[in-house]
Specification:
Blueprint (H helix, E strand, L loop, with lengths): L4 H13 L10 E11 L5 E10 L1 H14 L6 H15 L6 E5 L2 E2 L6 E8 L2 E14 L6 E5 L6 E5 L6 E3 L6 E6 L5 H8 L18 E6 L1
Parallel strand pairs: 1-8, 1-9
Antiparallel strand pairs: 1-2, 2-6, 3-4, 3-7, 5-6, 7-11, 10-11
Helix pairs in contact: 1-2, 2-3
Length: 215
């Protein structure tokens, strides 16, 4: 199966840097934090996402940045990678799925993308606006953030502020529902080695679902 370019970068990092073979998906990890963006009427208008990449991929990126930057981590090189990643992610809706109840919502192109190093880990942040703001009063707003092939596992960071709101005083709450894939999906994922991606859509079965409600 052809790797999407974004995932191919993870594959390269894993194969170059991993000291031990691995026989099960996922092979790379991203810790996610989200700020739910609200408009002046308290409606959800988008998501500000922060992705913190795992050590393997971060080391791979820093090696490339140092090559370009003459032995130093170059912000210019990191910005170039950010632009490449954002371009490649467009085909996959930026690994983001948003909905209102059972209805899928449309998104606008992302804005305000930035990147930096946090310790030894690469961080990428960007805002995904909704095409139209939506109320979360009567019908919950929900989102999933996941790699469709499940090569990369994306989970909310284990912090108290992994989901926040742009207006901290808003009467809103978020509940993260853990995935519960059936045994067949688990068995299939475990059969894939580091040179393979799962089928498009596999990752959805392993994705957290975040439900947002506002009073």
């Amino acid at each position: 199966m052809r790797f999407p370019t974004f995932i191919a970068n993870f594959v390269a990092a894993f194969l170059v840097l991993s000291p031990l073979p691995s026989n099960a998906h996922p092979h790379a990890w991203i810790d996610v934090t989200v700020t739910v963006l609200l408009d002046d009427d308290g409606r959800v208008r988008g998501l500000h996402q922060t992705w913190l990449f795992d050590d393997f991929y971060s080391a791979f990126v820093m090696e490339g940045a140092m090559t370009i930057g003459g032995g130093k981590v170059s912000q210019e090189a990191l910005d170039s990678l950010l632009a490449e990643n954002m371009s490649n992610l467009a085909e996959y809706d930026y690994f983001t799925e948003v909905g209102s109840g059972e209805n899928k919502l449309e998104m606008a192109p992302p804005i305000n993308a930035t990147t930096q190093l946090v310790g030894n880990r690469l961080q990428m942040a960007f805002e995904v606006p909704l095409a139209s703001a939506v109320s979360a009063n009567d019908i919950p707003f929900n989102y999933r953030i996941y790699d469709p092939t499940f090569y990369v596992e994306m989970v909310h960071a284990e912090t108290d502020d992994n989901v926040t709101f742009s207006d901290a005083s808003a009467p809103c709450a978020a509940i993260i529902k853990e995935p519960d894939p059936d045994p067949e999906k688990l068995l299939y994922a475990s059969s894939l080695d580091q040179s393979e991606t799962g089928y498009d859509g596999l990752g959805r079965y392993f994705a957290e679902v975040v439900s947002v409600t506002c009073d």
